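Quick check before the chapter quiz. The format below is the same one you will see on the exam, so make sure you can read both the input and the output lines.
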Amino acid sequence: GDYNSPIVPEDDGKPQKMTLVSQQAVNGVPSSTVKTNQPNTKDVRNGAGKTAGNKKIPKEVEDYMRKNGMTLTNNQNQPQRQQQQQKPPPPPPQQTDPTRQHYDNQIAKLRTSFHASPNDEYKALALADALRARDLAIHDGGSAQNECIEIYHKALQLIHVKKENMKQLGQNTNVASAQAPAGTQAFGNLNDELFLPNAGKSVDGLLCAVYAGLGKIYFMANMFEKSVESYDEALNIEPMYLDALSYRASSLIILGRYEEAAMNYTTVIQTDGKQRMFVDAFTGMAKILVAKEEAVPNGWDVIVPTLEREIPNIENRLEQMSPQLQLPQNAGSLSFITGLLTKMHLAMFSYHDVKTKQTKEAWHHLSTAYKHKMSALPKWSAAHEDQRIDTIKKIFRPGFWPEGTGSTSRVPIFIIGFVRSGSTLLERVLDAHPLIVGTGEDSVFNGRLDYIRNKVVEASISGDPTMVPRVVKELAGEVVNGMKDRWRTIDSSTSDEKDAIEKEKQPVPRRFSDKMLTNYLNIGFIHMLFPRALILHVAREPMDTIFSAYKHEFPPGTLDYTSDFPSLAQLYQNYRDIMKHWDEVLPGRVTHVRYEDLVRDMPNVARSVINATGLQWDDGVLEFHKKKQAVNTLSTTQVRKGIYSHHLKSWMTYEEELQPLVKMLGDSVEWDLKTSLANYVPPAEEEKEG
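Here is the expected output.
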């Protein structure tokens, strides 16, 4: 049920109904929800909700789109509106993001079709799957999640009714009407239906697919317990259903239930032995082994012998097939095989990095993993990356921000920084405060950025001098209301009665953290809407940051290119460049927090951070690692351990191998940035003054 406690108002404007428009960079001004280095992407790959391995959106959705002429290509850019000269200058006029427009147009068609036939389970599924695919491709605060969940439940109701009718007629509910695609592995159970279109699945196979899809959208919505429950429903029908087992394990890792997750992954690895459609089981198991090896019976032996045997075989096959795989029509096969090898080598890197400490072997697997990965990616566009940074710097200059414009609200707390900089630790510290809530990495502000820019442009050219301040304040109110709505949705997902009772005792949040690290590109707009909101920039020792970014594989998009030295160096240097720019044009606006200070001097830094939020100190903040909360980031297993410092200067283990990257970075390998929290003095400086 809904959580009905009121939200404390704080001059945030009235709730507004709004239609999200556009998310792509225009004239070089970036938007990081559609993650790509190319201006107009047609890459629609999945993350946590993918169907299997490194496949694209669910096959049945793709087939449905193709059947109805809904190709996965981008629409042409829309003509730009004319921009009038204003002082201060408005943001540049925006084009509609073709990726967002494509999804929204097709979803509108599917929605119309479903509403015309509300008792058609296949139309319900086509709509739900398309909504889930949109949620994976476009990070906008989860705007499609509630509808997606609702439609999945509607589909389940329809299919269960169909199943009961068939049972009453004595008909078998686990016999598919179509044959599995040629060349796929035969399991002898409902896994044989994994890649059939919905209409070809048996009723039981359809239920398994829907419960798995529902589990994935719950995962994306940070409702991890509900995610596990949905996978359990699928497994009640087919105990060996690999799609549910694999992604159930992902949710269990986030919930800290490592033993259960290891059992699920073990089953997947043993069962999916021919085609390795669920290769994430290897990297997932490696993550568990790194975090808690004793959670896995037989430890690393569960995966290492298999990987040592299969990697050479697959690489030989790749070499033999290479000429054919280079053909455009075989791009999908190339992507699958290289993705398979990437995951396997990364699991072996973790083994040698953590277990054997054989750095040469570890580096071999890490570098080989990324050799395979980069071979299947489009070429990095260095010019495009530099252009968007230059454009931001040209637009956001002194005089851009009108005086007296913006909300007085301090409700949002924006956390920014380069990836792998330690932001998750800071977010957990904030979230441990009873009046502060973190809602995950799906930024509400970032998801509405293009809409915000469009409305500001329209107000700027209206000729009404009162329009810009009024519109900006309304937009800020909509962002805050979006944060509160997302919190209500996540908060209402509790399935545990005891937890629900505890939640009723908790005070209503007064601050919401928005952690989208790449919002360092969007500080100009953050300041326009929220001139009083706290912006926390987490900065870590450069080479520790960069090596951590390099060795971790991110979801598909621009961050794919952190796996290659030249593009990684450029991304980091541009980040440093834009942060310098903000300090120059908005001096003191961004509050810097050195990760090393946070780790070495947690009590004092934590007190200074809470003080900066305008809230009273709470002793529970220092026990953040004991708080029951699921964290869906690459740092999931780390933040559960509390504070540890052995990873500082960890890049030095691979100092020799990283020398080419060090040279590319030049002066950026050093950064004399100080924590700028009010009244905070690092311990070393206190000693010097003494």
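If your answer matched, good. Residues 183 and 275 are 9 Å apart (CA to CA).
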